[in-house]
Design a protein that fits this description.
The complex is a heterodimer of chains A (about 280) and B (about 350).
Chain A (H helix, E strand, L loop, with lengths): L1 H30 L19 H6 L14 H28 L7 H13 L2 H16 L8 H23 L4 H8 L4 H29 L3 H6 L8 H8 L6 H41 L1
Chain B lengths: L5 E12 L2 E12 L3 E5 L6 H9 L6 E6 L2 E2 L10 E4 L11 H11 L6 H14 L15 H13 L5 E5 L7 H18 L2 E6 L2 H7 L2 E6 L2 E6 L1 H6 L4 H7 L2 E5 L1 E3 L2 E4 L2 E4 L3 E3 L4 E5 L4 E4 L9 E10 L3 E8 L4 E7 L13 E5 L6 E4 L4
Parallel strand pairs in B: 3-8, 3-9, 6-7, 7-8, 15-22
Antiparallel strand pairs in B: 1-2, 1-4, 4-5, 9-10, 11-16, 12-13, 13-14, 16-22, 17-21, 18-19, 18-21, 19-20
Helix pairs in contact in B: 2-3, 2-4, 3-4
The chains are: A mainly alpha (about 280), B alpha+beta (about 350).
Chain lengths: ~280, ~350
């Protein structure tokens, strides 16, 4: 009885969810194939063309529409996301490792870390820029102040992922390694790390993607035009006028994200097989 | 046993978890080339004791000595004491060979690659895993995993190996076989084994000596047959799982229990007055016959066939179950009528009497 009512409701809900998730992207995708340079960012499609894709790579003759000023911003964002990913994941793994044993003040430290993802990004960004300009007196850059806010923001995610992974981790394999005369650092490298690697991958993915499209913190903490990250640069272009070249760029970045996810999926598949072995071993106990 | 011949000595070790004492001033030592089994119910502190010796836990007080050296503050990886886990704790991402070679490859010692290969192969052959070297540890059976765990430890040639219920994860058939193999391997290597178990049969069968642990204290230590024939307290008798225990009153060498009043010429000093009679010492006879000695009326419930013997279960009027074991080597078992009353009796001088007054 219950499922006869509940099931259709859930089905409609899921359909709506998928529509809202992919609908905007689908529309953007279609519009990115608009004719150029005269076609605008709206229906109907005058004529299907790859004009805007070519325009991004500078393969079209000059027109009144300037190419997207995203080249350097894209590099900046990728480098920043990579730096953030490495830093946050290393910090996340290390601090989650520390939390395996209860220590004095661990609850306070836990909340201090997690606060980084709770505090509104605008406040963090604004505060950081005030701190840099008025208190410390340093110039804001994407690789200094913005980097710091990105780490403060993504580190809690990496930390929580690793905490969940290490929570289920059976420490007896580490003790076994110690009893074989292997020191704790080598044990971590040769036993613990390979076994928690799926979690590390997830933490890396979180940190990278969160940093890549971070907006409010970068807005205040990144400094001038020569320090703009990709989201800021894109925002800057459509404050004047929107052309389908932004849509084409959006499609390309989404494809990039999918490529990233596929790499993650493949690596994950490999290490999950390994994790299953561990689970089987725990079943015996 | 003096300290010179002892491989390890635990001196007054106490360890508490949140106010509960897991170990309470434990004193223990084992000799070189000895098989010692440590028996206790779950929660008796036996695993904690093992973990303190291995260096996984730091005792609140007391010292641990190994080969005459105080190792209380030495980290686990510098102790040179082997440890075999109940769940084996194999490295799931490595093959059998890599698991066994792990300590030689990454441990502190400088062992050449050729030497590592040679020793690894020798141990793999010894535990009977030849041909399995390149399998993953998920592709072998429970008994084979047990062997990998053992081989991985033995390849380091430790002087002391701690085994935490190493047979607990195996099925009964395999357990029996591995018991013999553990003994044989230990004798060949000449190392001391300290084997923790919750199984009284395992403890009695395997140890050169048996130590009984209860609520963080050692309540008896000795040779298996001494412990078996003369348990030091009602608690030991209870763990051995071979005795019917009756509470009653001991007064002037006479024990009064549910079976009447019986003379108790030998009394073992204990806090409570308890009368213990082994399962296989009790006889059941028809109701109305005269028992010369103790007589306990009980109802027959059921029996269990154990292969070499039959265990008969009787229930007394106050709901206590009394077990009567009949060894089949002594002839065919008697048959009892279900729900019928019988008289249980035994020869009084085969009983063990515990009490506050001792002679």
């Amino acid at each position: 009885m219950e499922s006869r009512v509940l099931k259709p409701i859930l089905a409609v809900y899921v359909a709506a969810f998928i529509l809202f998730l992919y609908g905007p992207f689908f529309v953007l995708g279609i519009l990115s194939f608009q004719q150029g340079p005269d076609g605008g960012p709206q229906f109907p499609i005058i004529e299907w063309s790859l004009y805007w894709y070519k325009q991004i790579f500078g393969l079209t003759p000059p027109s009144r529409i300037a190419p997207l000023p995203v080249g350097e911003a894209l590099i900046r964002s990728l480098v920043l996301a990579f730096m953030t990913m490495v830093t946050s994941t290393v910090l996340g793994v290390m601090s989650a490792q520390a939390f395996r044993r209860k220590f004095r003040g661990s609850t306070v430290v836990f909340y201090l870390i997690v606060l980084g993802m709770m505090v509104p990004g605008v406040l963090t960004g604004l505060g950081t820029s005030l701190l840099a300009n008025n208190v410390i007196g340093i110039t804001r850059h994407w690789y200094t102040t913005a980097f710091a806010t990105h780490v403060a923001y993504t580190y809690p995610f990496a930390f929580l992922v690793m905490l969940a992974i290490l929570n289920r981790f059976d420490g007896s394999v580490e003790e076994a390694a110690w009893s074989l005369g292997v020191n704790p650092w080598t044990t971590f490298r040769k036993v613990t790390f390979p076994l928690i690697f799926p979690g590390v991958l997830s933490a890396m993915l979180f940190a990278f993607t969160l940093s890549l499209d971070e907006f409010p913190r970068s807005l205040f903490a990144a400094g001038g035009t020569e320090d703009q990250t990709l989201p800021l640069a894109i925002y800057g272009t459509f404050s004047v006028e929107i052309h389908p070249n932004i849509f084409a760029f959006g499609v390309l970045t989404t494809l990039f994200s999918f490529a990233l996810l596929s790499v993650y999926g493949v690596l994950m598949g490999l290490s999950v097989r390994r994790a299953r072995k561990l689970a089987m071993q725990e079943d015996i106990a | 046993m003096t300290t010179e011949t002892a491989i390890f000595r635990v001196d007054g070790v106490t360890k508490s978890y949140g106010g509960v004492k897991a170990l309470d001033s434990v004193m223990l030592e084992a000799g070189v080339n000895e098989y010692m089994s440590l028996l206790g119910p779950s929660g008796s502190g036996k695993t904690t004791l093992l973990r303190v010796i291995a260096g996984f836990e730091v005792p609140d007080s007391g010292r641990v000595y190994f080969q005459g050296r105080d190792i209380t503050g030495v980290p686990a990886h510098e102790r040179g004491i082997g440890f075999v886990f109940q769940n084996f704790a194999l490295f799931p991402h490595l093959t059998v060979r890599k698991n066994v070679a792990f300590g030689l490859m990454y441990g502190g010692g400088t062992v050449s690659a050729a030497e590592t290969d040679k020793r690894t192969q020798a141990v793999i052959d010894m535990v009977g895993l030849t041909g399995m070297e390149d399998r993953g540890v998920d592709q072998i059976s429970g008994g084979q995993r047990q062997r990998v765990a053992l081989a991985r430890t033995l390849v380091m040639q430790p002087k002391l190996v701690l085994l935490d219920e190493p047979l607990g994860a195996l099925d009964a058939n395999l357990r029996g076989r591995m018991r013999n193999e553990l003994r044989a391997i230990r004798e060949r290597m000449g190392v001391t084994f300290l084997h923790v178990t919750g199984s009284e049969t395992e403890a009695l069968a395997m140890g050169d000596s048996v130590v009984v642990l209860d609520r963080g204290r050692i309540i008896q230590a000795g040779k298996p047959d001494d412990v078996y024939s003369a348990p030091a307290s009602p608690a030991v008798a209870h763990f051995l799982n071979r005795f019917n225990l009756f509470s009653g009153k001991l007064s002037h060498g006479v024990f009064t229990g549910p079976f009447g009043t019986v003379a108790a010429p030998q009394v073992t000093r204990a806090a409570d007055d308890v009368y213990a009679i082994r399962y296989d010492r009790v006889r059941a006879q028809p109701l109305g016959s005269v028992a010369d000695g103790p007589a306990l009326q009980a109802t027959y419930i059921a029996s269990e066939y154990l292969g070499s013997s039959v265990m008969n279960f009787f229930e007394t009027s106050d709901g206590k179950v009394v077990e009567v074991e009949h060894h089949l080597s002594l002839g065919a078992p008697e048959t009892f009528e279900a729900r019928q009353d019988y008289i249980l009796t035994w020869t009084p001088d085969q009983a063990i009497v515990f009490g506050q007054e001792s002679k």
